[in-house]
Structures are given as structure tokens and as C-alpha cells.
Amino acid sequence: MLDFHTHILPEIDDGSASVKQSEEMLTMLSGQHVDKIVFTPHFYAEDETPESFFRRRDESYQKILPLLKEKFGDIDFRLSAEVCYYIGVSALENIERFCVEKTPLFLLEMPRCRWDAGMLSEITSLARQEKVIVVLVHIDRYFDFNPLKTFEDLSQEGVLMQVNCDYLANKKNKRRIRKLFRRGIMNFIGTDCHNTDDRKPNYKEAVLNLQKLFDDEAFGILGFYEEEFFD
Ligand SMILES: [Fe+2]
After folding, report:
1. How far is the CA of 17 from the centre of ligand 1 (A)?
2. Phi (first) and psi of residue 163, to 5 degrees
């Protein structure tokens, strides 16, 4: 099973604060039967150049590489980035560098507000590029500001969607989760874990809730995308 969105790489963003904490997070995920993990540190184009970001990402990755090899050799790890939206993101140079390794998947974090026509057209421009497939991350964060129709329209444009495990684990969201699933706008799930405390990996609770709602049907759909890009 795949955790598509994590902040496990140490000392690079507001996620893991140390190699030790990364190890604890990985141990928790591995105990929840996760065997594919994408590392998605934040990239803010307004604060940093891509070169600086990739240098820091590599430094961070090198810090945990021995651990990954020694203790988590059976997990498929992929480097990527969670790119924060900005005006002009669709013209980001060498955009493939930000994608999940060995895939065209590009993770885009949107602002928490009602998305205006300019933002929507920027997402659409990105989606129409042949080089990448856009994945909007933690779409559950935006439901208070944007109607479901917005996500359905973007999905029609080929944009994929990732939902956070916290949202999926909350039984209060049952009706909305059903709609997301039935309308095909839940393609990946991710813990978006940042630490071992208030934002710890909680994959298992989400999976149990999905199982209650859909039996094994949900895993067929989620498994399709996992197989498509990760096998
Ligand atoms: Fe994140």
C-alpha cells in the first residue's frame, strides 16, 4: 500500500526534525502495512530556487539513506516535492524534476481560499502539458472554499486528486468520502505526516474506515493508480 504524501525527510521543512524521528515515522508506517512511500518536502518558489531546494533535499536524503537500506529495504521509496502554487507555476522550468521519481506525477498544493479563474486556468495549463500529470494534494483542505464541482471539472481535465488520511479516518466525513469515491475524485491517499505526535502517520485508521464504507471496492480503485505508476 502506498503513502503518497509525507514529510519524513529529516531537517528540510516543517516535517521530521531528525533522523531519529524519521526512523520512528517509518517504523509506524511499516507497521501499518505501507510498502511504498513518497517523500514530498515543501517547495516554495517565492523563498528558494529549485537548485537550492534540490541540494537541500539531496542532503536530507543522504542522511537517512543508510537507515532506509539497513532497516526498510523492503519499502519502495520515491523522492518528490509538494510544490506550493504561485502565479506562473505552469511555466516552472524543468518541471519533471519535481515529479515523483519514475513517474510524471506532480504534486501541487493550492491556497486555502476560493480559487479564482486565474488559478483554475493555471492548473488547467499545467494539466495540459504533456510532461506532467498534476495531482492536487490534500483536496479535503479546500472543501470549505470550493464546491465539489470544481474538483470534478478539474478531474475531467485529467487532474488527479489526493485525500489526507486524517480526513478519511473521520467518520463524520462519511457522506463526502462516498461522493469523492463514486465520482472518481480520490486517486491517491496520503498521511501527510509531519512528526510522531500531532501529525503522525495514521494510514491504518483511514484504511479501516474505507474498508467499512466500501468493503474492498475502494482498494480496487486506489490500487489501480498505485499499480499504474508504482509497479
Ligand atoms: Fe504536505
Report:
1. 15
2. -110, 145
The amino acid occupying position 99 is C
In a structure prediction context, what are the per-residue pLDDT tens digits for the chain, which is 231 residues long?
A: 999 999 999 999 999 999 999 999 999 999 999 999 999 999 999 999 999 999 999 999 999 999 999 999 999 999 999 999 999 999 999 999 999 999 999 999 999 999 999 999 999 999 999 899 999 999 999 999 999 999 999 999 999 999 999 999 999 999 999 999 889 899 999 999 999 999 999 999 999 999 999 888 888 888 989 999 998
In the structure grid, which three cell numbers stand for residue 198, read together? 500531532
Q: Out of 1.10.287.620, 3.30.710.10, 1.10.3720.10, 3.20.20.140, select the CATH number for domain 2-230.
A: 3.20.20.140
How far does residue 130's CA lie from ligand 1's centre (Å)?
25
Q: What letters, b where the CB count within 10 A reaches 16 and e where it falls short, cover 7-36? A: bbbbbbbebbeebebbbbbbebbbebebeb
| pTM, entire model | 0.96
Ligand 1 midpoint to CA 66 (Å):
24
Q: How far is the CA of 203 from the centre of ligand 1 (A)?
A: 15
Q: How remote is the CA of residue 120 from the centroid of ligand 1, in Å? A: 21
